[in-house]
Amino acid sequence: MRVMSRDFTRSEKILILVLVLILLGLVYYQFVDRNVRDTITSAESEVQMIQKEMDAVEKRLAELRKTKAEMDALEEKGMLSWMPSYNAGKEEVAFLNGILADTLEYEVTFSNVTRSGTQIRRAFKLKYKVKGYEAAQAILDRLSESKDRCLVGDVKGSIDKDGIVTVEQSATFYETMVGGVPDAGLPSDGAKANQ
Hints:
Blueprint: H1 10-77, H2 89-99, E1 105-116, E2 119-131, H3 133-144, E3 150-159, E4 164-176, H4 190-193
Antiparallel strand pairs: 1-2, 2-4, 3-4
């Protein structure tokens, strides 16, 4: 049994050829062209994301270079200090005893240690007597220029008729929990308590 017994005419062959070409074009578009375009679009998006990340890294690097330059300048001036790890109380007391050794008399009173995150603060008050303002200024200079971070607070001074200067001042030593070992004297974290 023969179903198709006739030959296609020229116009039918052209029509079939056009349909085959259209079908091939659709297959090419669906499986090749679209995939290539999607891949290019995806790659362009990744390039933009990487460029944004690179811009952020370059900005951060510029900030770090600026900070390093500022720290180098401070170090050249001898103004760079650091925060020792908790518990540096013994070293701080030894430092105070050293700078106050030439006084006529002195008294050091430490307050409770406070903590905020990884930062520890040891507030203290000094009262000392020395001969002349120059000696008092030398003690203040050594305290404010110490290698350990120390912030000098209120300073009050008076001089008597014999030239003896009495100084009362407050100051704070700063320490960090980074590298420190907690002990029973470590207070709870004030930053967490305030949240």
